[in-house]
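Hi all, posting the design record for the shared folder.

TITLE: backbone redesign
STEP: 1 of 1
STRUCTURE INPUT:
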């Protein structure tokens, strides 16, 4: 049976700048506990400004259940509900909601790169950045999932999220561990061409000169998370 990497990005914070570490800890713990009982490896992979991304390595037949459980947990611990309330069973009523990206796993361990963006006044140009990352992955033959869409997106097991969702997520699945270094370096280098874009560590707030965009980049490796910021920093020496 095919397996997939599913990433769900959401703002459940009570402010527009950063997340609550205590809430993140509660969400991460329950996601791991409940989904592991189904044989799904899942956890928070990215914390970007006021957004978190939950990433799962999931068999095709459990995608709906995976998404439903995550949505339930998010509603349980959320401090802010704007993104959650943007979800609708009716496609035409969906508003700004979750960011949803899915890509087929080509590694038995579900190895993937997850790139997450958050904006403060950068809503008009952040999609271009995410689509650029998608293009890099596709150009080199990887399976890529990207949350950017010009119409509502159906999230199996949850409902529809609107096209105005503005904190995109990109998933790129890889076959071998050594490909992580190559593709992450290409993404970092390519994104340097964009003004008002800042590469930050997982967990940092939107501490920038607005308007602008921040992004984090993580490796999801058999359910383990590596923040690629430090590795790239050591290689590039910035």
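Okay, here is what came back for every position:
SEQUENCE:
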């Amino acid at each position: 049976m095919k397996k997939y990497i599913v990433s769900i990005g959401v703002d459940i914070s009570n402010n527009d700048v950063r997340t609550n570490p205590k809430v993140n800890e509660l969400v991460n713990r329950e996601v791991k506990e409940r989904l592991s009982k189904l044989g799904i490896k899942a956890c928070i992979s990215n914390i970007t400004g006021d957004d978190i991304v939950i990433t799962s390595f999931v068999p095709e037949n459990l995608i709906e259940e995976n998404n439903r459980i995550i949505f339930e947990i998010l509603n349980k611990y959320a401090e802010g509900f704007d993104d959650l309330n943007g979800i609708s069973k009716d496609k035409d009523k969906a508003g700004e909601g979750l960011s949803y990206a899915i890509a087929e796993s080509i590694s038995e361990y579900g190895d993937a790169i997850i790139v997450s963006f958050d904006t403060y006044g950068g809503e008009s140009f952040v999609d271009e950045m995410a689509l650029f990352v998608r293009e890099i992955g596709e150009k080199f033959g990887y399976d890529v999932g990207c949350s950017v869409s010009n119409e509502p997106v159906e999230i199996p097991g949850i409902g529809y999220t609107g096209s105005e969702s503005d904190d995109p997520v990109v998933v790129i699945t890889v076959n071998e561990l050594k490909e992580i270094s190559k593709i992450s370096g290409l993404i970092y280098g390519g994104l340097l061409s964009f003004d008002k874009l800042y590469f930050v560590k997982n967990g940092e707030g939107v501490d920038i000169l607005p308007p602008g965009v921040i992004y984090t980049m993580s490796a999801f490796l058999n359910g383990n998370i590596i923040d690629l910021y430090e590795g790239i920093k050591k290689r590039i020496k910035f």
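COMMENT: The CA atoms of residues 113 and 180 lie 7 Å apart.
Let me know if anyone wants the other runs.
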